[in-house]
Amino acid sequence: HAVKGGLEGRGGGALGGGQVKNCGGVAPAAGGACASPPPLSRALAPPRAGSDAPSPPVAHPKFGNKKLPNAIIVGVKKGGTRAVLEFIRIHPDVRAAGTETHFFDRHYGRGLEWYRGAMPRTLEGQLTMEKTPSYFVTKETPRRIAAMSRDTKLIVVVRDPVTRAISDYTQTLSKTPDLPSFRELAFRNQSSGPVDTSWNAIRIGLYALHLENWLRYFPLAQMHFVSGERLIADPAGELARVQDFLGLKRIVTDKHFYFNRTKGFPCLKKPESSGSPRCLGKSKGRTHAQIDRDAVEQLRDFYRPFNVKFYEMVGHDFKWD
Ligand SMILES: Nc1ncnc2c1ncn2[C@@H]1O[C@H](COP(=O)(O)OS(=O)(=O)O)[C@@H](OP(=O)(O)O)[C@H]1O
């Protein structure tokens, strides 16, 4: 997932407006008053919205400690993982790594200290988070996360697997214009045969199969499933559930969102302190490639039993039919 403009690709900085709950690792002065730390709002100010230029490096105040994540958004690719991370990190008790670390799938050999180094500094009581959407479908990841900590909370943003596959294809097409057609990739035997489950865009949507692997290492209660569809229709509602799951006070609410009619998606309102309203980058909420109705119907039929199994496993009907 290339780092793009908009809200993506920021350093580990939380959004402005967070409350400093203690002296930020700085010893309180006599009488218990905190020595004044560098102004957080300035040090952690987000880049200006709409700018595609890479954010200038943010000089992080050297207080707080880097910790391994308490919670990880593990998937799914194109589910809405960036939106969940950007929305939850408004919470003053959450700090998140801005870029996908790919530690558990690509860089595991670098060791846990490398991983810790990729995390933002946190103050006492703040949660550390990251998101790497490929984790959900990587066989080794659940075992590796469990080896780090069995207490890690796991968030999975799921979306109708047919729409997800088309979104995934649209992304690849944007980088590889001479890509074969969706139909050619999705079906075997010159497009007339069965669904080709070896194509990643198809395989990722077999949520029930991937989940089985996670349940060998984590109880279901430690996993939270966000509906990618509800996330667009009612971001505050989905974020309320995410905050409950993380044991956080419900601070991110409908007051933080507005529907941007130009983008056609919810965006973040201007924070009280400073800045401008912010939408996700251009690669989020793209117009999808046109796929013929037959192919879509065939895929719907193909995924139906896997979806039903997934609903049973998680105890929630995502209504993808
Ligand atoms: N508020 C808001 N703004 C923009 N986009 C939003 C939002 N909420 C959810 N989404 C959906 O997020 C989809 C991209 O998912 P991911 O961030 O998981 O993609 S990635 O795997 O990191 O590439 C992206 O997929 P596409 O619509 O196919 O581009 C969006 O549908």
Automatic annotation (TrEMBL):
It is a single-pass type II membrane protein. Pfam families: Sulfotransfer_1 (PF00685). GO terms for cellular component: Golgi membrane. Belongs to the sulfotransferase 1 family. It is found in: Endomembrane system; Golgi apparatus membrane. 3'-phosphoadenylyl sulfate binds at residues 78-82, 159, 167, 284-288. The active site is at residue 78. Keywords: Disulfide bond, Glycoprotein, Golgi apparatus, Membrane, Signal-anchor, Transferase, Transmembrane, Transmembrane helix. The keyword Acyltransferase does not apply. Its EC number is 2.8.2.-. It comes from Hippocampus comes (Tiger tail seahorse). InterPro entries: NST/OST, P-loop_NTPase, Sulfotransferase_dom. This is Sulfotransferase. Residues 70-304 form the Sulfotransferase domain. The keyword Transmembrane applies. Disulfide bonds join 267-279. Residues 31-64 are annotated as: Disordered. Residues 31-49 have a biased composition (Low complexity). GO terms for molecular function: [heparan sulfate]-glucosamine 3-sulfotransferase activity. It is an enzyme of class 2 (transferase).
